[in-house]
Design brief:
The complex is a heterodimer of chains A (about 375) and B (about 325). Chain A is mainly alpha-helical. Chain A has helices at about 5-25, 25-50, 65-75, 85-95, 110-115, 130-150, 170-200, 205-210, 215-245, 255-280, 280-295, 310-315, 320-335, 340-365, and strands at about 55-60, 80-85, 100-105, 125. Chain A is about 65% helix and about 5% strand. In chain B, the strands form three sheets. In chain B, strands 6-7-8-3-9-10 form a six-stranded mixed beta sheet, with helices on both faces. Classes of the chains: A mainly alpha (about 375), B alpha/beta (about 325). The interface of A and B includes residues 21, 24 and 212 of A.
Chain lengths: ~375, ~325
């Protein structure tokens, strides 16, 4: 006697099927977790290269005023990483590309400054990239101004009084790694969600979906749940590294967890739609890796997107990553990086998921493998 | 939906004036078929005849352009309702399976979808039925083509369907697997199951079917028992002779009249003898020419049957 299958049973069977398939593709799963971690490495390197530019400090004076200047040079610009060394070493390392710049405090600096004489401070810059030159040009004068103000030299009549919008500062790398979790969710969940569906087409199993006495939606839901579970583990590992390894403490723990799960779920659904439309695994991987970085950069991943102009900001709204970064930065750092409130970000992400599921279901319902 | 007024109470499935158009091509033209419960019905025809189109309509995989499909007298919407899908088992032409899963896991998934009671035991039973019980824990990717075909057969049986639909079930399998699949269909027939199958092979239709529907270019050419069709199609006499005497032999055979159709074939002639003539007469006449090396009388193949039935089909 045959009993007609019910939806939840089919959902469970489909989820077990997907987990079994993934368990037989261990290399894929391992690389997926690694992928989530490599994106953290990527943005960390990005942050490091932008903020820790190695700069030689050649102190030929060793006076108290020279020491004071060094203090202000270190504070002046976050890009500096001052490395005390001799002039010869600095020349050699600058020539070999190991340094961005060399700042030399000449002998007699302290005496000359104390006597009110103008001192020339030699700054050698590797101007291979104008961004590096700009950093030095901005940093050294601001350090000199702060140094002069602190030591009561005449001529400095203005001092900035910083008033922070947010009660706490957020480091560049902590900011980046949180937005990288949105990137992780996009690539990991997107690719796994797309593969879960594309593989059905490649194996010719969509016909079986149509023969089963349950709606395709139950089968799709089961596969996507399993896929999202594996993606959650991968993104969870990356989040663990962010919290434990980078020392980022979420401001709102529950919202952080909810945002991460939401992002994984949404991007799994977006992946399913892509998989249903493409119906092949290889284009799926190319699509997500091709889209990942542009969407990431255009999502406010490096800074709030509205800083870069209205046009870019408007374009960013077409990407779900924009809203994912907004939700995650709010949950983890308590930052409002989108003008839209975090709940609106979450709602729009849910809308993305709904549209993606409708597309995937429609394609699966219409595209019968046998013609 | 209400029962069709012409519904046959013994019919489990009926296709009524089903037409299928793919763009400008008419793949099936007002095709009708009644599948009576407990019968094995064969769809016979060359490639492109419309067999798979009928199978897809019968399995609910393709919505016909025109006409309707009935289940126990009730006209069905497309896709078929779940209660009907749960009573049909389908073996499609391709052996679509999850390669990374084992044979048993593939069947278990199907059993779960169809909510089969005691799925573990049922999976073991159908694996044993198709002779794959010793490969239950092997991944499908390690199975041969014939084994895969048998596994798809097992999958179609796992929920014990009332109607089994087989689309060229022995396509591209070796002789051993072919006979194994024939054995499964015969067993189902003994058990009173209803089977609708398509085939390219006349011997398969003869071996398995109670009734055959011969198709060509989307139209029904003939309907009857396999024996009736073959009888109607007559027999073939192969005459082995040298090329330089073919014309002479052919001329001598013309005395048999227009009923015997003579065709040149490589290294001799083939004479298609109608059912009401005797092949032996032709053989005697051919041997009487003195220029013939040998004569062989055989049953017509599928294409020859379709030609003899007036279709002029070519495979």
């Amino acid at each position: 006697m045959v009993h007609v299958g019910d939806g939840p049973r089919a959902l469970r069977a489909s989820a077990i099927l997907e987990l079994r398939q993934l368990s037989r593709s261990r290399v894929l799963v391992v690389f997926t977790v690694l992928e989530a971690l490599t994106f953290l490495v990527l943005v960390s390197l990005f942050g490091l290269t932008g903020s820790r530019a190695p700069t030689a400090l050649v102190d030929d004076d060793h006076s108290p005023l020279a020491a004071s200047l060094v203090t202000y040079l270190e504070r002046a610009h976050h890009s500096f990483q001052l490395r005390p060394m001799t002039a010869a070493t600095a020349r050699r390392q600058l020539a070999s590309g190991q340094l961005v710049a060399a700042v030399t405090i000449p002998a007699g600096f302290g005496n000359d400054v104390a006597a009110g004489r103008t001192v020339v401070l030699p700054v050698d810059v590797d101007n291979v990239d104008v961004d590096l030159t700009d950093d030095i040009q901005r940093a050294v004068p601001s350090a000199l101004a702060a140094f002069g103000r602190a030591n009561g030299f005449p001529g400095v009549r203005v001092v900035a009084a910083e008033r922070d919008l947010i009660a706490h500062d957020t480091g560049f790398i902590p900011y980046l790694v949180v937005s990288a979790l949105a990137l992780d969710a996009l690539v990991v969940a997107g690719v796994l969600g797309a593969l879960a569906v594309a593989r059905e087409f490649e194996a010719g199993m969509v016909t079986q979906w149509h023969l089963a006495p349950v709606g395709a939606g139950w089968l799709l839901a089961g596969k996507l749940l399993a896929s999202a579970l594996v993606s959650t583990v991968a993104v969870g590992v990356a989040a663990g590294v962010v919290f434990a390894g980078y020392g980022v403490t979420p401001v709102h723990a529950f919202s952080t967890l909810a945002s991460l799960v939401l992002c994984v779920g949404i991007f799994t659904c977006v992946g399913a739609a892509a998989g249903a439309l493409l119906r092949r695994s290889l284009p799926v991987a190319a699509l997500f890796f091709g889209l990942a970085l542009p969407l990431y950069i255009d999502s406010g991943a490096l800074e709030p997107e509205r800083f870069d102009g209205n046009a870019i900001w408007a374009v960013a709204h077409a990407s779900p990553v924009y809203f994912a970064v907004g939700a995650l930065e709010d949950a983890v750092h308590g930052l409002r990086v989108t003008p839209e409130p975090p709940l609106a970000d979450a709602a729009i992400l849910l809308l993305w998921a709904a549209v993606a599921v409708v597309i995937a279901s429609a394609v699966l319902s219409r595209r019968v493998a046998v013609r | 939906m209400p029962a069709h007024p012409d519904a046959d109470p013994g019919a489990i499935l009926a296709l009524r004036s089903v037409s299928q158009r793919f763009g400008p091509r008419l793949a099936l033209d007002a095709f009708s078929l009644t599948v009576a419960r407990g019968r094995v019905i064969g769809l016979l025809g060359p490639n492109g005849a419309g067999k798979t189109t009928v199978i897809n309509a019968a399995a609910g995989l393709q919505r016909p352009t025109d006409g309707c499909v009935e289940w126990e007298g009730e006209a069905l919407p497309f896709p078929f309702p779940a209660r009907v899908r749960g009573r049909i088992g389908v073996v499609a032409q391709d052996t679509a399976l999850y390669d990374e899963l084992t044979a048993a896991e593939n069947l278990r998934f199907a059993a779960d979808l169809f909510n089969v009671p005691s799925p573990k035991h049922r999976v073991a039973d159908v694996l044993a039925l198709v002779g794959l019980d010793d490969r239950a824990r092997d991944r499908v990717s390690t199975l041969s083509g014939g084994m895969r075909r048998r596994l798809t057969f097992a999958r179609a049986l796992v929920h014990d369907p009332d109607l089994l639909v087989l689309d060229e079930p022995t396509l591209a399998v070796d002789i051993d697997n072919r006979h194994a699949i024939w054995g499964h269909v015969r067993r189902l027939r003994r058990e009173g199951k209803t089977v609708l199958l398509s085939t390219n092979y006349l011997d398969e239709a003869e071996a398995l079917c109670d009734e055959v529907v011969a198709l060509r270019d989307g139209r029904v050419v003939a309907v009857g028992s396999p024996a009736d069709l073959v009888r109607t199609a007559g027999r073939c006499v192969e005459i082995d002779c040298d090329d330089d005497v073919v014309a002479d032999v052919r001329r001598r055979l013309e005395v048999l009249g227009p009923a015997a159709r003579v065709e040149a074939s490589g290294g001799g002639l083939t004479v298609h003898v109608p059912a009401d003539a005797t092949a032996e007469t032709v053989a005697t006449a051919a041997l009487g020419t003195g220029a013939v090396r040998g004569v062989r009388v055989r049953a017509p193949d599928m294409v020859e049957v379709l030609e003899a039935l007036g279709s002029g089909a070519r495979g």
